[in-house]
Amino acid sequence: MPHMVPEPYRIKVVEPIHLTTFAEREAILAAAGYNIFFVRSKDVYIDLLTDSGTSAMSDSQWAGLMMGDEAYAFCRNYYSVKDAISDIFGFRNFVPTHQGRAAEKVLFATVVKSGDYVPSNTHFDTTRANIEAVGGHAVDLLIAEGLDPTSHHPFKGNMDVERLKDLVQDVGASKIPLAMLTLTNNSGGGQPVSLANIHAVKDVLSQHGIPLFIDACRYAENIYFIKQREEGYTDKSPLEIAREIFSHADGCTMSGKKDALVNIGGFLAMNDEGIYQRACQLLILWEGFVTYGGLAGRDLEAMARGLWEALDERYLEHRVGQVKYLADRLLERGVPIVEPPGGHAVYLDARRFLPHIPQAQLPGQSLVASLYLKGGIRAVEIGSVMFAHKDEKTGEWQYPELELVRLALPRRVYTQTHLDYVADVIIELYSKREQLHGMRYTYEPPFLRHFTARFEFV
Ligand code: F0G
Q1: Ligand 1 — pocket residues by CB below 6 A?
Q2: CA–CA separation, 345 vs 186, rounded Å?
């Protein structure tokens, strides 16, 4: 039986959840056009749509809300965040933002010009979109193992350093205003990046004077993998590893909704004074004054406290352990998932789960719908609905390599019993997988299909 360390907290506030009947779920899902985004939260039993903004805050964070100083300028909570950033990340300057993508928007509008290139291991969707919005090219340079759902490489989030060198050679350093590393690599399955890779990437960049920014959303989870898997780090504390990681970076974007354990908040941090000054101008235009950036003083306080809590080793052991526990329970019964599991989510491999459903019939979407019908579980498709596109020349559909269903675990929200329930539902579905049908669109929007499309079973 897979093992899990007990929750390193006890529960003081509860939020009731309710399992509807199968007949109710059939009606609810049909009314939602078989698109899980249209199902009301109250009709979901276990919500694994995202780990973003869904954390349970601690008693200290809730107490921090009462310490909110709602002055427009230089409230005390600004200094709580400033101190945490300077202690943990070591950056001299920062601006708060309402969430991660706002930090990205300010950063790229500040440093990227039309025609520039921004390499990364893999850009998250909003990061890519914000680069493209200012005319830049977002380039993903993930190592090949990162795209292979069966590869057991310990750091499947690593950047391919040779391809980075080639890019610099091909387009010239003057066309690369910065490079990024996403820790962990969400789009690639929540896979970690090693410190050796951060070093190697930084080496190449330094030779050409290119700054390195880290998308730090899930940096604490990444740290736990470094501690477990990378030689020389077993005895280092998460804080020590954090300091080492960010000593190689020139700045970072952060969605506090992940590893700062808050429901809203983010920031952009950097050392460079010039970038900071220009970012401040855009921040005032888009987010708010430079000391609150779209957040209330209380939100800043909760984020400062959450930044520290996420570095607690017992918290990380349990957090990453939960994901592994769910993955192990599924693997034990042969359910195909992306291996090894990452830090925040288990990804079902829908192509191997439902080999009888061709990609044109959206196996990932079918699995998402079936998880809801069977057990009131909400997951998200990361496959053809999200990424398939028509070839401009031939008009033929191009399907993505990976057809995944993400089960993202909110932080400190669900217990082992909930995970067992989820595992049982999936194992049961897997044993009856031949009975699942493909899907087709009844409404197919032109952009960002997954949010508003409608479907039916074939
Ligand atoms: N970078 C990464 C790696 C992310 O996963 C996200 C958000 C963002 C940036 C943007 O942050 O949402 O605060 O604006 N990921 C969420 C998810 C939405 O469900 O994976 P944000």
Answers
A1: 50, 52, 99-101, 124, 126-127, 182, 186, 215, 217, 255, 257, 266
A2: 9
